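URGENT: need a sanity check before tomorrow's submission.

F., can you look over the Vesicular inhibitory amino acid transporter record below? I want to be sure the sequence and structure line up before it goes out.
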Amino acid sequence: MSFLRLDWLGTQAELLWTSRFLHGDEESLGFAQRDELSRTYGEDQEETRESPTTSSPDGGNETPTSPSSRTCLKITTWEAGWNVTNAIQGIFVLGLPYALLQSGYLGLLLLILAAAICNYTGKILVSCLYEDNEEGQPIRVRDTYEDIANACCKRLCPLLGGRVVNAAQVIELMMTCILYLVVSTNLMCHSFSFLPLPPAAWSVMTFLTLVPCMLIQDLRVVSRLSLLCSLAQFLITFIVVAYCLHQAHRWSWRRMVLLVDFERFLVSVGVIIFSYTSQIFLPTLEGSMEDRGDFSDMMSWTHSLACVLKTTFSVLAFLTWGEDTKEVITDNLPIGLRMVVNLCLLAKALLSYPLPFYAVAEVLQSSVLRLEGAQVGVDMGTLVLRGCLLLMTFLMALYMPHFSLLMGLTGSVTGAAMTFILPSLFHLQLKWTTMSSRLKALDLLILTLGSLCSLSGLVCSIKGMIQAFGR
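Structure tokens as predicted:
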């Protein structure tokens, strides 16, 4: 979630698209040099593992590279930082002030703690890509999150770990598509409140707007428009913050509470965790960097910056509206300003939907249904699959139109697993013999906290939805 992001969803879609359509295309290569991680994604993993080794930029360590990786341009540390910033900043930060309303002062602590933990787990996840050689030098022997998971499960079931990671990825992508539909419907309702249409009618209009996603073959135009919308969010953020500063005379710290409802607090935990999820694409990002030795510092400053921005935005918005804070904070703006901001956000949400939609369709098509991608046009099997996915996300958004509860549910189910639980678990299994007692204790603590947050947040989010439907 996030205010600047093509986010990892866009990145994942670009990676999938690049790996299937970009090889040997000069025009595409020119675009790839400008657009996120697509410029660095090489051939598939098996070819990479079988390729010869070359020295890495971070100190001469040998790392496996594929033939394509030698022809792809690498990205700088600043570009890598921009990608991570996109992943943890974006449209879903609109729900953070409401999460702060539900969690009080503990929410402020959570925003800082989540940033610190996600920064740490991102680093240990990438460390699992490496094994020490006989001379004690780290060598990159794995490429993706799935590779790490498969390495940890190779004795039990060689492909089990990768399937678990893929399942979590599909769930998170699907839930993100649903959230885009929910927020689009919400924005339409509040932007055109003078029209006497029920929310269901706006949901149908949103659904019809996205039907052309079924025919997507090339994401270049979509990704370029999404990039422009991401840049436009700078303006939106400035407008919201400027309005909050203009209303400084209304601020009161008394609105921030110490005692909070425990169940609502746990839902807020999921919302905040979801806003920091980026681990799924970090292995690919680190492999694309010119100087991999800068990865750790890059993670530190990007997460620190995200923490400052999110905390500032959430606090300013909450101090301005207090108990009247809405699930989507732009709904609190005056009607004239709200319409301008909401229309910009609506465009962003609608243009962002095709990226996770395309990614989840590709994952299901290639990994589950074993369908061959059509080279020209879209074949019937792909069309049916995408139609079912679009209809499924529409129906779930129609019957679960609660933005914060959906964010909390997604953060509790997949966010905590991919961000807290699995990185710590994999790090303990792969690096146990070389870890200090302090790091073992830290990993076990994060693993325990992640498990508790995931289970309790899942229960409370589902309970909250049941209560919301019963009203």
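My own read: Confidence is low (pLDDT under 50) at residues 1-71. The beta strands are 53-55, 62-64, 130-132, 138-140. If you see anything odd, call me.
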